[in-house]
Amino acid sequence: MNGESVNIGFVIFISIVATIGGFLFGYDSGVINGTVDGLQSAFQSESVGTGFNVSSMLLGCAVGAFFAGWLAERLGRRSLLLVAAVFFLISAWGSGVASSSGEFVFYRIIGGLAVGAASVMAPAYIAEVSPARYRGMLTSIQQIAIVSGLFASFVSNYLLADIASGSTQPLWFEFAAWRWMFWMELIPAALFLVMLCFIPESPRYLVASGKTEQASHVLNKLLARGVAQKVKDIQASLVNDHKPRLRDIINPSGIGIRPIVWVGVGLAALQQLVGINVVFYYGAVLWQAVGFSEGDALLINVISGGISIGACIITLLVVDKIGRKPLLKWGSIGMTITLAAVAFAFFNAQIGDDGKLILGHWGPIALIAANLYVFCFNFSWGPVMWVMLGEMFPNQIRGSGLAVSGLVQWITNFAITLSFPMLLAGIGLAGAYGLYAFCALVSVIYVIRVVNETRGKELEDMQG
């Protein structure tokens, strides 16, 4: 699709609808941040139990991301997003009504299935309906939606806790504020379900499924001209003897996995190993551990969410001009420096009688460095990793490549999230952030040595 022959208004509309899934991805991930005290109080959980309550959703995310690619090749991208919308509704309601830890984990895993599916299918869908000229910008909207969802959950958590005078205090109808934090997600989840009814299926999926007439109908809405040629280009990019399948990620020689899949796996793992979701999931706990009140800690989360949105907007404006690889490289360098600064600040803190760290004059340094780290992540690895996963794989293996990469991304996310309370109790904040700084340094080397630029290439030209 070249930029001059595209009905860009319609492309933008369906891209925005798809990214409501990203908004819910962010909201569902961030809402847990303000509910940790409530979960500990309601379910009487200790550090390991709390870590599992917080990270349980990520198990569902891993499963949802893996099977999303497989199911999307059979049911379609849009159909899978409809299923995800229903799961978001079930999870939001159930997480708020849960009366036991087991029940809560069940509903969070349901939400995780939805988040996992949306995390890989929304950027894939956007990439498949977008012209190469605008693809990076439109796919970056997904990350803006994710951090907007995080920001909305932080604001909602802050306001609800403020109204109730604490997340564990009763709010409307005598239900604790932390339960209402989950129920607020019902609003965007319902909107997502309704709006998905107004967007078409991916034309590349339709061609791969042999539905060329339906694909041409969709392409007529997306393109001002050149529909017949685009259908031929898509057909030529596919292996003609079978539909896309998971085993396509294996080298044609039959030995090992295709190198491009390993590149995607590395990107997915490193995005989580730098520790970003420790900030998103445990931000309130982290800042309370260094002496801030619950209200102040939740407010810091709001500020971090605002910074994330600003950083993603910058990426949206420059990703198709600068390219993907430079943004990843400089983001990695920035994260390495800022994470090291946070670790150094925590290392120099004193331990108070209550067990909390007393940062003293290191406090502003830690706070500024942490927010600069959030900025560096969200103008680079946050959006760009999803942009690259959505576009770097050849048409034949896009669903399967996304499935494997998404599985690795969420398993790594789960490991980092589950381990943080134990790291906090074992090697402390300084040790944990030192570990994340080392992983950020590894990501610098990885980008320079392994990652190739995809800016401006048509999806039909991607090689595996």
Structure explained in plain terms:
The chain has 464 residues and is an all-alpha fold. The chain has a single domain (3-199, 238-461), classed as MFS general substrate transporter like domains (Growth Hormone, Chain: A), CATH 1.20.1250.20. Helices cover 75% and strands 1% of the residues. The two termini are 21 Å apart.
Summarize this, please?
Helix content is 75%, strand content 1%. It is mainly alpha-helical.
Distance between the termini: 21 Å
Number of domains: 1
Strands across the major sheet, in which order? 1-2
- Overall, the morphology is globular
CATH architecture: Up-down Bundle
Estimated structural class: mainly alpha
* Approximate strand percentage: under 5%
CATH fold node name: Growth Hormone, Chain: A
Main sheet overview: 2 strands, antiparallel
The low-confidence parts are none
Question: Which CATH top level class fits?
Answer: Mainly Alpha
Average of pLDDT = 78
The count of β-strands is 2
Q: Rounded to an integer, what's the Rg over CA atoms?
A: 22 Å
The percent of residues in helical segments reads over 70%
Counted by DSSP, the helix tally is: 19
Characteristic key phrases:
single chain, globular, Growth Hormone, Chain: A, 2 strands, two-stranded antiparallel sheet, mainly alpha, 75% helix, 464 residues
